[in-house]
What we know:
The structure is a single chain. This protein is mainly α. It is 75% helix and 0% strand. The chain has helices spanning 3-23, 31-52, 63-84, 89-109. Helix 1 (3-23) packs across helix 3 (63-84) and helix 2 (31-52) packs antiparallel against helix 3 (63-84).
Amino acid sequence: MTIKEFLKKAKEVKELYAELSIKSGQDKWTYREFTEALVSDAGDLMKLVMVKSGFRPRKTNNLDEDIKHEVVDCLWALLMISSELGIDLDKEYPKKISKLKLRVKSLLGNRASL
């Protein structure tokens, strides 16, 4: 799947949540609420990673499934934030990854400065 295909499916879920919010008398989510959700989900993901790494006690029988769930929740929130802010990930992601690659290659070439 492409980012556009991920985004299309993510927006379908967003619209369902918007409908649910309206029915329950709440406002539709904006980039602010999606960012709050991302931070919360990232925290949940970190706790699960700590369990997997042995730094926290295990409280779940489905650790790998719970980790997958949180990773996808984070991705969904990121897709919604980018959509709400008008960020074209198909355009921006390749540019950023190319810059990161060049930066890391440069750092590898300049190991003495590390």
